[in-house]
């Protein structure tokens, strides 16, 4: 049955998590999982591999399938093939929602040679283009700037200013007077989210002693600069 976005879950690119253009030359994304499955096989694969370490309700699963913004509750498996060798590979993609910037990582790989029983060498595994696939997905989905680095336990901002992680939960100051202000907004938001805060913007308003609308405005401008991914529904 089609989702609210008009796509069938069995179509591997239905949610936009992985599309053909993300794959290097020579790799192919079939329309469906092997066996012409009419549904997303991710839950089945997680269960078969013992990868389902969290309970997801039927309502949560349907909300995940119907999401047009790729709101993953857990990882999703995608099946790809290598044209020259007929190698078959399942990769498990999962959004790292608390990373700053947010990104998608490959959190599982199942490698199947063309003929069952053929040996797999370490060179075969090293040749899997996992890093290139991750980079392509993240560039397409987020196209976000990575403007901070970590050096000696300190966060180094674009201006050269160094702060510690605990400084992220302190007031950020005035946007017009504070260097790297919007980088700090992104970092503070990510820090709160990583701690499980369900309403980071509300907490940011309290930390910075500003109206909630002001904190939301900061986040809008931070996203416009590519320092945070687009906001989610709700």
Task: Please give a structural write-up.
By secondary structure, the protein is of the alpha+beta class. The chain is 29% helix and 15% strand. The strands form two sheets. Strands 1-2-3-4 form a four-stranded antiparallel sheet, sandwiched between helices. Strands 5-6-7 form a three-stranded antiparallel sheet, with no helix packed on it. The longest helix has 14 residues, at 181-194.
Features:
4-stranded antiparallel β-sheet; 7 helices; 234 residues; elongated; alpha+beta; 3-stranded antiparallel β-sheet; 7 strands; disordered N terminus
Low-confidence stretches: 1-5, 61-73
Average the pLDDT over all residues and give the rounded result.
80
Report the count of strand segments. Answer: 7
Spell out the helices and strands N to C.
EHHEEEHHEEEHHH
Instruction: Report how far apart the termini are.
Output: 25 Å
Largest sheet: 4 strands, antiparallel
Name the beta content range.
15-25%
CA-based gyration radius: 21 Å
Oligomer: single chain
> How many helices?
7
Strand order of the biggest β-sheet: 1-2-3-4
User: What is the helix content?
Assistant: 25-40%
Structural class, by secondary structure, is: alpha+beta
Q: What gross morphology would you assign? A: elongated
